[in-house]
C-alpha cells in the first residue's frame, strides 16, 4: 500500500493524516512534498497523524527527521500523533522518541502549540 | 529440520527492494517465525537491499543484487550481495550519537543489527556481501537446541 495523505485544519493547526507506508521512494517523497508545500503556504503548526502508517523504514525515519528540522528551521513546529506500536518501537530504538514531540490525543496535540 | 536454500538475482531498482522485503516476509512466515520476528527479518532484508541497490550498485542497470535465503540447523541465513565498490566500514556512523540523532540517513545497518542475531558485512573491490542470521526460537547458532 502506497502512502496517502489527507490535510485538514483544526484551530490554526494543520493535521496531516498519513496512511500506508513511509518508505524509500514514493512514500518518503509524498511526505517531503507535503510538508514543504505546507510550509511554503505559511502553515507552520503541523501535526503528522501516523495512526494509519503501518510500516516505516530507515528512509522514512530520515524523512520524519527532515520534516521536523525543516519545519523548525522555518520557525515552525512539527509534532507526531497516534504512533502505531511498530513506529513507536522504531522511534524508541533510534532514540528519536526523545527528539520528537509525540502525542496520543489530537485535541491535546492541537492545544500544545504556542 | 530440513535444509533449504533459494537465491534470486535482481536488478538494481526500487522494485528489487520491495520484492526482497516481500520474499523475506513470505519465507520467514513459512518457517514459523512469529509476527514480530517476521517484521524484524523483513525490515532487515529491506535495509540490506536498500544498501545494495543505492549505496552499492548505485542503481546501475548493469549491476545485479543477489539475494539468498538458507535454512540450516536452527538458523535462517540471508545473504545479500552487490557489485559496487565495496562498503567503507570505517564510515558507518553511530546513529545514536547526539551529533547524529538529527541526521536524515545512516540508520539502516543499526536497524539490521537491532533486529537480527548476527550481521556480518564483508566488503571487497567487487562488491559487498551482507550476511543476516536469525536464530529460530529455541536454537543456538550451531543448530543445537538451546537450554532455557
Please give a quick description of this structure.
By secondary structure, chain A is α/β, with parallel strands linked by helices.
| Overall 3D form of chain A | globular
Overall mean pLDDT of chain B stands at 91
What is the CA-based Rg of chain A, rounded?
13 Å
- Tally of domains of chain B: 1
Shape type of chain B: globular
Question: Helical segment tally of chain B?
Answer: 3
Please outline the major beta sheet of chain A. 5 strands, mixed
Predict the CATH topology of chain A: Transcription Regulator spoIIAA
Determine the number of helices of chain A (DSSP H or I, runs of at least 4 residues): 4
- What structural category do the secondary elements of chain A indicate? alpha/beta
Share in β-strands of chain A: 25-35%
Q: Major sheet of chain B, described briefly?
A: 5 strands, antiparallel
CATH topology of chain B: Heat Shock Protein 90
Structural class of chain B: alpha+beta
Can you count the beta strands of chain B?
5
**Could you say what the CATH architecture of chain A is?**
2-Layer Sandwich
CATH class of chain A equals Alpha Beta
Largest interface comes to: A-B, 20 and 20 residues
Strand order of the largest sheet of chain B: 1-2-3-5-4
Any chance you could write out the topology, listing elements then pairs?
The complex is a heterodimer of chains A (114) and B (148).
Chain A: E1 4-10, E2 13-22, H1 26-40, E3 45-56, H2 58-73, E4 77-81, H3 85-93, E5 102-103, H4 106-111
Parallel strand pairs in A: 2-3, 3-4, 4-5
Antiparallel strand pairs in A: 1-2
Chain B: E1 4-11, H1 14-30, H2 35-56, E2 64-72, E3 75-81, H3 108-115, E4 118-124, E5 127-135
Antiparallel strand pairs in B: 1-2, 2-3, 3-5, 4-5
Helix pairs in contact in B: 1-2, 2-3
